[in-house]
Amino acid sequence: MARWFGSLLLWLLIAAPWGASLYAHFWLAAGELWSAEQPYRQLTSVLILAIGMCASFALYCALFRGGRPR
User: Fold this and answer.
1) How many independent structural domains does the chain possess?
2) HEC readout, 4-32
3) Is the pTM of this model over 0.85?
């Protein structure tokens, strides 16, 4: 049970940057801080999500060097 819980926490840690970028995107839209007519909104959305995904991938690579968690 403890090993399963530790693995779950590790994967939640890895997914945290991507989740944070998704929340940032939601927060900007829900708070009406940007509108659909804003220039470069699509590019900004893609960059926000790509940064979160790349950060999660980098964290995964750093934690799983050699095929096993450090």
Assistant:
1) 1
2) HHHHHHHHHHHHHHHHHHHHHHHHHHHCC
3) no
